[in-house]
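Hi, here's the filled form for the chain we discussed.

Project: internal
Contact: R.S.
Residues: 352
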Amino acid sequence: MSLPRPRSTILTAVASISLLLPVLAACSSDTSSSDAGSSAGSTESAELVVYSGRSEELVGPLFKEFTTETGVTVNARFGDSAELAAQMLEEGDRSPAQIYFSQDAGALGAVEELLATLPESVTSLVPQQYRATNNTWTGVTGRARVIAYDPQSVPAEQVPQSVFELTDEKWRGQVAIAPTNASFQAFVTAMRVTQGDDVTRDWLTGLVNNDVQTYEKNGLILDAVDSGQVQLGLINHYYWYEKAAEVGEDNMRAEVAFMAPKDPGSLVNVAGVGILKGAAENSAAIEFVQWLLSPNTQEWFVNNTYEYPLVEDVASAEGLPELDSLAGPDIALAQLADLPGTLNMLQDVGLL
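And the returned structure, exactly as it came back:
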């Protein structure tokens, strides 16, 4: 997972995206396939430039495996997904990026107009709900939001079934969140879409007023719950499964619960990938995306990250509920594109 950036860097990304979104459509519409052919992103070669919002620690070995199997070198630029999105918007058709690999769907939606329509050989591999409605990007793996809880202080039957319960006075100082984390931000965006800005702002303000505990990363939240520092924490499901595999489930104090169907806290988001317009006809770029969705690579994610695979005939990690059984809020992932609005709201309430 990509590490969160300091407040000043995050706000710079917010400003960059906010300023550049209005001109995005004009920039992309002026870029024809022939014009893009002269950019660095269109060069057909044995090297791919990938802007990756997934960390080098996580996917660096995976990129090297792609090179070993195909002979195509991956020249990766790693960073926060939102910051890389802002950078591509600023670079426009001059961007050297050929592939954008994002940690979440919201950042992909923010640069959708820079992305080429993916071929059917790619889109046919992933169910519609896990890719853009116009097929400019596709999910690679899925993640579910869950509540980590301390069963020594919160019996399973008392775990909140909705994120809206977390502002109750009885949870004062006992709820942990990671507001700089992309997955938390995407979840807040989903709440804005389904519940409206007023409800979402009131909820965030309620958390602040209830002495919510903030951490830089989901893993730190899980550690805090596991050690009894806080009773509840909002995280992605795979953090618990990764730690259980590392230390043994019997050595875990924390447990996780999935929230009620349709609740904003039950969002299933994706890490996803798109091809920049300048590389639309680049066979290596298409091969890279297909490779990410191949059974072997999907199994790699299952075994190494405990995320959900998105292609048929690849089983999820043992112990996970089936992906089809998770009923998230009624929202298309493409609707998570208003990341700037969410970041501004988090700043306004004092969480950034």
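Let me know if anything looks off before we file it.
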